[in-house]
Amino acid sequence: MTDFRSLGVSEAVSNGLAVRGIESPFQIQALVIPEALNGGDILAKSPTGSGKTLAFAIPIVERLNTDDRPAALVLVPTRELCSQVTEEFGLIAGDRVKVASVYGGVPLKAQADEAKKAHVIVATPGRLQDLVDRKLISLSSVKVLVLDEADRMLDMGFKPQVDRLLRALSDDRQTMFFSATLDGEVGELARRYTHFPARFEGELPSERRSGEIDHRFVAVTPENKVSTLIDLLKHEETGLALVFVRTKAGADRLVEKLLRHDVDAAAIHGDKGQAQREKALERFDNGKVKTLVATDVAARGLDVDDITHVINFDPPEEPDVYTHRVGRTGRAGRGGVGITLVLPDQQADVSRVARLQGHVEKFQETGMQVAKPRVVYTSRRRGGRSKW
Questions:
Q1: Is residue 243 part of a domain?
Q2: Residues 375 and 226 placed together within one structural domain of the fold
């Protein structure tokens, strides 16, 4: 069995991992770590949950020149992922390496002061560009760059900031891309900013693959959409339910309506302050709030094993978004339920998403009687490679 020492990882770091119960690398870690330790550029196609954070964090800690501040930069799409990656670095490096998080929703000056002292900066592109533009921090000493969930970053509209930040860095650096896809804009970006990269593709570890997920599509009218959701939350055997909406204002309005009907709920979206978001996630994670209403900011970076239901109150417009949303349930081999509420004028779009995801042989587009809510299609499909 491969262990971290055989990949070239130092005894100190390997022992630190072992204390946490991590003794054998996941597939993407075994593939990436040796090349990353040699300083080569890397393109890694890897899904959320595959263990990719350690795949880049371990080589950064091993190769870090502590005289450089910052020596490494990790760009991520969301605040939640930023916090998770920062915590992971801390568990590997301890006090030897200082890591700073840079994201919106907190005071600029205090964040800049922390970033100036850090060996590793983990940042969302928008806030980091703001600090650079204000000349509050410099990235001239960065020798390692990581783009984590690069596809999601571009989907969220960060391409201009990413381009500016990458152009501002020294060419004499190591660059690593981690993404669920390396096609399209991600592939183009990678071609521009990497040199003879090694390419790797990893799968989810078997213990992290999704269990069987029940995919349901429910026809509703505008008038009974909220009441249908309330009925589902009250009468389904739900543990934790994650409800996706399209807009920030819509998330807040929906929470208000749920609370009026005795459904304990909280909202998370980009206009919430970091402290508010962390509090909502903590209450959701420990079960004090059973329903979390979110925009797609929570589609990635949210890692809660006990989510039994994902409900698309507003259907996603793209197949990949459907995958990432519903992928929040069925974690760690458990089963889960994905429910999509479908208005009459959304039937064609949802049909396309369902077909492309392989959940529906033929979505019923005609004859949908929506005088009362009804399930128009239910599909059971096991997760794992096909899911991701």
A1: yes
A2: yes
Q: How far apart are CA 243 and CA 268, in angstroms?
A: 10
Q: What's the domain count of the chain?
A: 2
CA 147 – CA 161 distance, rounded (Å): 12
Task: Compute CA distances 105 → 116, 124, 320, whole Å.
Answer: 19, 11, 28
Residues 100, 174: one domain?
yes
Does the model's pTM come out above 0.70?
A: no
Tens digits of residue pLDDT in 248-302: 999 999 999 999 999 999 998 878 877 788 788 888 988 899 999 998 865 556 7
Sign of CA dihedral 77, 83, 88, 93: positive
Contact by Cβ (8 Å): 379, 359? yes
Cis peptide before 70 (omega within 30 of 0): yes
C-alpha of 308 from chain center? 18
Tell me the pLDDT of the chain averaged across its residues. 83
Q: Per-residue confidence at 385, pLDDT binned at 50, 70, 90?
A: very low
